[in-house]
Amino acid sequence: MDEPLSPTPIKGALQSTIPIEPIQLQGWVRTRRDSKDFSFIELNDGSCLRNLQIIAKNTLPNYAALQRLTTGASISVRGALVASQGKGQKWEVVADKIDIVGGADDTYPLQKKGHTPEFLREIAHLRPRSNLFGCVFRVRSRLAFAIHQFFQERGFVYVHTPIVTGSDCEGAGELFRVTTIDCDYTKDFFARQTYLTVSGQLEAEAFALALSRVYTFGPTFRAENSNTSRHASEFWMIEPEMAFCDLNGNMDLAEEIVKYLITDVRKCCPEEMELFAKFVDKELLARLDFVVERAFQRISYSDAVDLLRKSGEKFEFPIDYGLNLQSEHERWLTEKHFKCPVTVFDYPKEIKPFYMRLNDDGKTVAAIDLLVPGIGEIVGGSQREERLDMLEENMRGHKMDPADYKWYLDLRRYGTVPHSGFGLGFERMLMFITGVSNIRDVIPFARTPGSAEF
Q: What does the buried/exposed string (b/e) look like for 78-93 if buried means 16 or more CB atoms within 10 Å of the residue's CB?
């Protein structure tokens, strides 16, 4: 009886320096072409971008069946990893056994040709098998790891905040309700109105005021009826919160993590990044290196508005003090004026949530938005209002009842300290690093208005 072999990832086989005999591989057929006495099978198991060529000789007992293999079929291969005699690859496998695990008929939609992103969104369950999306989701995995690595190296504690919440953190009312009934919420499952969270920030503040430095990383939800390329109804957020930290410390950390994540992915995913630079955005690598190598510009909201007014640029949306900056304004600042990432701070209090600290001028709050070329806002944060009386006043100004947030006010009642934090949109960071322009293409199964398939 043959000794069972542990499957070798194709990535590991391709990186081999010494031929290994025998080797066991499993994966999916990308292409097959036949010669006189053997067939060439391009195999991929998802561990890397490149395929591994399998040579199937006509002496194999099931060679006739192997000649009918089509793209998408899954096989298990045993054979010798040898130096390749052909061009384009260093290694290949000469098979002594190939088992067909699962066939694929002619309806398999991922044939060897170009496919549009729109078509691939319709087959989101199969698109990770394509080169582009295999690269996107391997980079997504690495980026998630790098986020945890960044915070763990700096002594942050990872906190799991609830997905079901009774708080509207942003005060925008764009929430998904969680209910088991249609009317009286006192008789509902949680005996009150509850929602899918838009942010873990409020709960993170509670832990920061006990453990000093914490971060959350999880799904958030926004019932915003927006069909832009930058918005999704379900997305992931990274939210660090730091006690004894002012706005300057907050900006320092936000700028540091952006550079750290770019550097990590550039180092750990070179093949994937080369594919993005070749087929998605030819200026991608130069832009990312530019961001890493240069200091971020910092400018107040008021000064940013003045620059935009005097720019002579024709914007679709109006620019005036007291209005939110739109994506076109943010991109003008980063791409045309400063030509580098920009951190905008001190926004008018009327356009920001209740929890942001009121500045001494009584008109602005200690808020930040970090803007990057190609995307616009990628980080939003603030120093939090640590003064009990001011926080209660802010709540009333936003037509909120302080009694609904007693636990949050307790954090200011018992040992309050200055603290700050921000939210980094995971998918927007992924868009920036990959050059992929639509958020639907960096999420495994996108949730957008009118669409919750798969």
A: bbebeeeeeeeeebbb
- The CATH superfamily label for domain 10-102 reads Nucleic acid-binding proteins (2.40.50.140)
Least confident window among 90-94, 165-169, 281-285: 165-169
Cα distance between residue 334 and residue 77, in whole Å: 51
Q: Rounded to whole angstroms, how far apart are CA atoms 212 and 172?
A: 28
Nearest to 383 by CA among 429, 425, 346: 346
The domain limits of the chain are 10-102, 121-441
Report whether 182 contacts 154 (CB < 8 A): no
Backbone angles phi, psi at 342, to 5 degrees: -135, 135
Of 9 and 6, more confident: 9
Identical fold for domains 10-102 and 121-441, yes or no, is no
Where does 312-385 show beta strands of DSSP type E?
342-348, 364-372, 376-383
Whether the model clears a pTM of 0.85, i.e. scores above it, the answer is yes
Q: At what angle do helices 270-279 and 247-268 cross, to 10 degrees?
A: 90
Phi/psi of residue 433, each to 5°?
A: -75, -35
- Cβ atoms of residues 383 and 246 within 8 Å: yes
Q: List Cβ neighbours of 376 (8 Å cut-off, separation of 6 or more).
A: 230, 327, 330, 331, 334
Q: What is the pLDDT of residue 171?
A: 60
Q: Write down the architecture of domain 121-441 according to CATH.
A: 2-Layer Sandwich (3.30)
| 3-class secondary structure, 44 | strand
β-sheet bridge partners, residue 239: 216
User: How deeply is 308 buried, as exposed, middle or buried, from its count of CB atoms within 10 A (0-12, 13-18, 19+)?
Assistant: buried
Name the 3-class secondary structure at 407. helix
Q: What is the mean pLDDT of residues 411-440?
A: 95
The string over 380-396, giving b where at least 16 C-beta atoms fall within 10 Å of a residue's C-beta and e elsewhere, is bbbbbbbeeeebbebbe
pLDDT for the residue numbered 3: 53
Residue indicated by tokens 């992924």: 430
Residue 341, pLDDT above cutoff 70 = yes
Strands 157-158 and 213-221: parallel
Residue 20's pLDDT band (boundaries 50, 70, 90)? low
Q: Is 62 helix (H, G, I), strand (E, B) or coil?
A: coil
Q: Place 1 in a pLDDT band, splitting at 50, 70 and 90.
A: very low
Tell me how far the alpha carbon of residue 129 is from its chain's centroid. 19
Greatest Cα-to-Cα distance within the chain, rounded to the nearest angstrom: 85
In this structure, the strands spanning 74-83 and 91-102 are antiparallel
